[in-house]
Sequence to fold (132 residues):
Amino acid sequence: MSTPQTSRFVRLRVELVLEIDDTEAVTGAALARIAEDEELPPAEQAHAESAVREDTAEALAYLVDPFDLVGEVPGVELQQASWSSEQIDYDPDSPEWDLDGDDGDYDGEDDPEGFDPEEDGDAAGDTARVRG
Fold:
């Protein structure tokens, strides 16, 4: 069903809560990924390595790539992606973590957590626009 009023653009929201049981493995994998990035200037590489060593959430942000989620989906071209990671207090019994619940705050204009697709990612994430 495609009408002139129907947008071809879709925002797909994914929220994951991961338990890290081997911080050294995550940090090591992130450091290896940074070392393999030939396009990363030395100054940025040093900054990235420092951030990854200090914060496991930052290391995870270097390892998880939203492009991988939709890269091979037929009929879809990724236009923009934004992601971040942060350490949190997690209580699976809390209603706050009910993934099936409707928060009721989303009005379609702005993300309830302040996501603005025009802004860059924060220190623990990235934003990228992809043009075909």
Notes: Confidence is low (pLDDT under 50) at residues 103-132. The beta strands are 80-84, 125-129. The chain has four helices and two strands.
